[in-house]
Specification:
Four Helix Bundle (Hemerythrin (Met), subunit A), 11 helices, mainly alpha
Length: 237
């Protein structure tokens, strides 16, 4: 299959835990329509499925190894979310979600900023030590090693968010984080922008180490603002 296929993501592990759509490994009690909807929504918002891609029930169902019924329900919900629009000749087309994604970045800045402020009070010494290890290691790996950078970046943010000890806030953040922590977003960074992001991780860690909640929140929001501006930077004319 060509790597330019906009639906190539359907061949990937949908849940990240070895469960594959339509396989016996998938949890028996999981509602298939909910899972298809969630996966489609995240893939549209992250850009894995580009704007103007046509989605057809039969094609999606075949890729997922499932019937058309849960796919139809998932697509109906995407229409309600205004993430896709029906086409006169059948199927739906993915709409441009740039504005919505940029707004979601603003929400992320607010929520993870609060998480960092709470983490400054609640973070444990072992978590601070691991953040230090991640920061140090991040400066030693190649900026072209996207897999390791994504893994370390994800772990860094997971530790900070988890250290907030605020379960409801953690769940809110987890709902959207996969949209931002992926290869497509990371590949938009220049080397200079990547180095700045790494320095900002160190600033966040130092604020947490000093147990300064306000400073930690400012550092996190500044870091995520940098990510938002990088993701949506306009090409120079």
């Amino acid at each position: 299959m060509s790597t330019t296929d906009p639906l190539i993501w359907l061949n990937d592990d949908a849940d990240g835990d070895g469960a594959v759509w339509g396989s016996k490994k998938a949890p028996a009690n999981a509602r298939r329509a909910d899972r298809i909807y969630t996966r489609l929504k995240k893939s549209i918002l992250s850009g894995e499925i580009p704007a103007r891609t046509r989605l057809v029930e039969t094609d999606v169902a075949e890729r997922l190894g499932t019937s058309r019924t849960p796919v139809r329900e998932a697509i109906s919900r995407l229409i309600s979310d205004q993430l896709v629009m029906p086409l006169a000749y059948g199927g739906v087309e993915v709409v441009d979600t740039t504005a919505e994604l940029e707004n979601m970045y603003l929400v992320r800045e607010a929520l993870e900023g609060v998480a960092a402020r709470l983490a400054a009070v609640n973070i444990r010494d072992a978590e601070l030590e691991r953040l230090q290890e991640i920061v140090d290691l991040s400066h030693t790996i190649s900026l072209d090693d996207y897999d390791r950078r994504i893994a370390l970046n994800t772990e860094f943010h997971n530790i900070v968010i988890g250290a907030s000890r605020f379960e409801r806030l953690i769940r809110l953040i987890e709902d959207y984080r996969e949209i931002f922590l992926n290869f497509r977003m990371l590949s938009k960074y220049t080397k200079a922008e990547s180095r700045l992001a790494l320095r900002q991780h160190r600033d966040i860690m130092e604020a947490l180490r000093s147990r300064d909640g306000k400073l930690a929140e400012r550092a996190m929001r500044k870091h995520l603002e940098h990510g938002r501006k990088t993701a949506f930077k306009r090409p120079e004319i």
